[in-house]
Amino acid sequence: MILILLGPPGAGKGTQAALISEKYNIPHISTGDIFRQNIKNKTKLGLEAEGYIHNGLLVPDELTIKIIEERLNEKDCRNGYLLDGFPRTVFQAESLKKYYLGIKEHIDLVFFLEVNLDLVIKRNTGRRICSCCGRCYHVYFTPPKHKDKCDTCGGCLIQRKDDTESVILERLSVYLEQTMPLVDYYVKAKILYKLCGDEEITKVFENMCKIIDNCN
Ligand code: ADP
Ligand code: AMP
């Protein structure tokens, strides 16, 4: 099964991807997470991508496609995967279709999470991630048991550099201009499912599972 999660920054793609990955036992591939890991480890790729990410811009397609190609070639992707944050441009979507899907493979479902604009700002500004294991929290919606400490590993919770209000507004404008065209692109392919991302995490997950189970 190959799934794609589409939606504005803060729509809940990563949150839902973690739940789907666990329930359906498919790898969760987040290009954002791969970039952040590279930035943390100060790799060449991290150094190249850092400026774009911290300013709310998309990393150029060639670089993004290179990391996706490497990741999709790993063994665990042979029986499907869940893409979170990729593709983000029509060029990336075309590359996925032309070069990375095997002869017998096809994208099963694209979930488009629609979220109200005020909520987009609130979700992003309140997001905190564990600096050790990457688990995601929210200061209002899903706070940790102990302030600034991860429930899973005890690591320190930090705010992403691109989760400040000014960068969020830039990311949102980039999303509207470069990623929104993918909605039409996947509507035309008849694989897009629109979901209300304003609802509670468990409700959104329930709605996604119904669609996945129907498709199997
Ligand atoms: P994305 O991957 O789309 O950028 P995330 O999954 O990281 O979004 O979610 C952004 C923030 O909003 C996180 O802090 C997360 O805990 C919180 N969140 C995600 N989905 C919901 C929801 N349905 N209701 C409330 N908070 C949510
Ligand atoms: P995310 O974790 O999905 O919110 O992504 C964080 C940032 O990483 C984005 O704002 C972009 O700068 C960069 N990024 C992630 N995925 C892509 C992609 N598919 N194409 C270009 N840039 C990306």
From TrEMBL:
- Tell me which residues bind Zn(2+): 130, 133, 150, 153
The stretch of residues making up the signal peptide is none
Compartment(s) of residence: Cytoplasm
Q: Does the keyword Transcription regulation apply?
A: no
Cite the binding residues for AMP: 31, 36, 57-59, 85-88, 92, 160, 171
The entry's ATP-binding residues are 10-15, 127, 199
Q: Where is this region: LID?
A: 126-163
Primary place of residence? cytoplasm
> What GO molecular-function term can you cite, just one?
AMP kinase activity
Pathway where it operates: Purine metabolism; AMP biosynthesis via salvage pathway; AMP from ADP: step 1/1
Q: Which UniProt keywords apply?
A: ATP-binding, Cytoplasm, Kinase, Metal-binding, Nucleotide biosynthesis, Nucleotide-binding, Transferase, Zinc
The catalysed reaction is: AMP + ATP = 2 ADP
Query: Residues in domain Adenylate kinase active site lid?
Result: 127-162
Q: What residue spans carry the region label NMP?
A: 30-59
Query: Which InterPro entries does the record associate with it?
Result: Adenyl_kin_sub, Adenylat/UMP-CMP_kin, Adenylat_kinase_CS, Adenylate_kinase_lid-dom, P-loop_NTPase
Catalytic class of the enzyme: transferase
Instruction: Tell me the superkingdom of the source.
Output: Bacteria
PROSITE patterns linked to this entry: ADENYLATE_KINASE
The entry sums up its family as follows: Belongs to the adenylate kinase family.
- NCBIfam families (alphabetical): adk (TIGR01351), PRK00279.1-2 (NF001380), PRK00279.1-3 (NF001381)
Main function: Catalyzes the reversible transfer of the terminal phosphate group between ATP and AMP. Plays an important role in cellular energy homeostasis and in adenine nucleotide metabolism.
Assembly: Monomer.
UniProt-listed HAMAP family? Adenylate_kinase_Adk
What is the recorded name of this protein? Adenylate kinase
This chain's source organism reads Clostridium rhizosphaerae
Q: Which gene encodes it?
A: adk
